[in-house]
């Protein structure tokens, strides 16, 4: 699947629950800390509320789909379709501007 022309609010909303289930325990979120056990990972997973501002949506998509070698970041491409992964990328790109209430 090619990149969507724009990441929409609807895509970000659709990516919120998968992010909470699959990503938040390692990468935290607005008002949510990573799980204590994730602090023992090497390298320590980045807090995406900060790191996502430095990455393009295509980079987030690639990391979610393919994972990152020599880290604990799994590849979700084999178990999740591109549309769902783009939704997660849309949500991740919103994280730096989100408040805990959102």
UniProtKB/TrEMBL annotation:
UniProt entry keywords in alphabetical sequence: Heme, Iron, Metal-binding
A Pfam family annotated for this UniProt entry: Cytochrome_CBB3
KW Glycosyltransferase (keyword) present: no
Residue ranges occupied by any Cytochrome c domain in the UniProt entry: 10-96
UniProt superkingdom: Bacteria
Protein name: Mono/diheme cytochrome c family protein
Biological source species: Pseudorhizobium tarimense
Upper lineage: Bacteria, Pseudomonadati, Pseudomonadota, Alphaproteobacteria, Hyphomicrobiales
